Amino acid sequence: MRHDHLITSKQLSREDIEAVLDHAAEIDADPAAVAQRHAGTLLGLLFFEPSTRTKMSFETAMKRLGGDVVDMGSVESSSVKKGESLADTVRVIEGYTDALVLRHPREGAAAMASEFVDVPLLNAGDGAGHHPTQTLLDLYTIRENAGLDDLTIGVMGDLKYGRTVHSLAYALTNFDTKQHFISPESLQLPREVVYDLHLEGTTVREHETLDEILPSLDVLYVTRIQRERFPDENEYQQIAGQYQIDAATLEAASDDLTVMHPLPRVDEIAADVDRTSHAAYFEQAHNGVPVRMALLDLLLGGETDE
Amino acid sequence: MSNDDDNHELRVSKIRNGTVIDHVHGGQALNVLAILGIDGTEGEEVSVGMNVPSDRLARKDIVKVEGRELSQEEVDVLSLIAPDATINIVRDYAVEAKHRVERPDAVEGVLSCPNSNCITTEDEPVTSRFDVLDDAVRCAYCETIVRDDIAAHIDT
Hints:
The structure holds two protein chains of two kinds. By secondary structure, chain A is α/β, with parallel strands linked by helices. Chain A folds into two domains: 134 residues, Rossmann fold (3-Layer(aba) Sandwich); 153 residues, Rossmann fold, CATH 3.40.50. Chain A is built from ten helices and nine strands. In chain A, the strands form two sheets. Chain A has a five-stranded parallel β-sheet. In chain A, strands 2-1-3-4 form a four-stranded parallel β-sheet, with helices on both faces. In chain A, α1 crosses α5. By secondary structure, chain B is an alpha+beta fold. Chain B has a five-stranded antiparallel β-sheet, sandwiched between helices. The chains are: A alpha/beta, B alpha+beta. Chains A and B meet through α4 and α7 of A and loops of B.
């Protein structure tokens, strides 16, 4: 990869994406081959927001490459609590580690932090902005299940604040895909994302209900609509209820439909979907490890076949 | 020079050395000073004419700054709020050079991001940076696009 930092999926070309996914597939097939490749390497984990999957899969990935992690811990127990700036924090931790993973509640945090460090910095989520490593594992899962070209995908839920949605939509502009966006009007894609998609020549197809396009989809990517986005509980219940699916909903879908979700889910995908052949969200979460192993290996310069 | 221009020249005194920013859209003169960071506290002699008649614009503002020659980089920032402005560099009462403002690729440290959740609005050691698009500006950090009333986001 030509990049020192991974801040947004917009910086990734089709070739970059395919290099990561191909390498992830190699690692998935033979993890032992890379088991000691990064012995002695330390990855710094800076999570200013709670995380289970992203943090643990980065930790697992680094350890499965033979390296280790150092973890800032929660904001409550760190010097951030004393008012330290993010710029100072990353400059300090950079001195301890070979690469950094940053999650932060503010948009632009990773872009700013990357200006202060020389080691590779990976954005693990910046507010409602970007989440490019999630996107890579999403793309890996889509490629395994449906292929990335000649693809019709529907993305449903909170499209306004959902950083996984923004990152995925940008990345898919590199492929021959039709993108549909299903959400309540108040949670449609931000105009900044629409602007970028239009720049790439992508048609943004927006819908308020799933029914009209469900039969045409190869992939349905569901995201959580959060309670705090609505002023009152009644409105939340009423709106969120329209964007929940269960096994009965999917009877109208193609037999080959792949259902994905970045997790955690609350009630937007009913448990009865888990038992259908459509469910790919646990596989998707598992893919976080080989994909992040591949990414770390490429960014840390471990690839030997170039 | 048209009669109109001659008339307003009488209203706003000539300067000996400095910069005249002409053909500013009516009502934008104070924003021109704000975006240039000129607030008079450093003793600059500044004359402002507002809503004076103009051939090219129905009403225009004009700003004269004595004793300071603005660089092209400084005046290009003006393109965001005064796209038709002309810049005259004056030496010993004579116009030495005349420039039009050009839209720069980016502006630094002149606008603040309206997204309250942008990292640049935190207490971080970072200067705001906006990429300049055809009809808007965009925060280089959080990517928020500002299309309307850019003057309202001048960092004062």
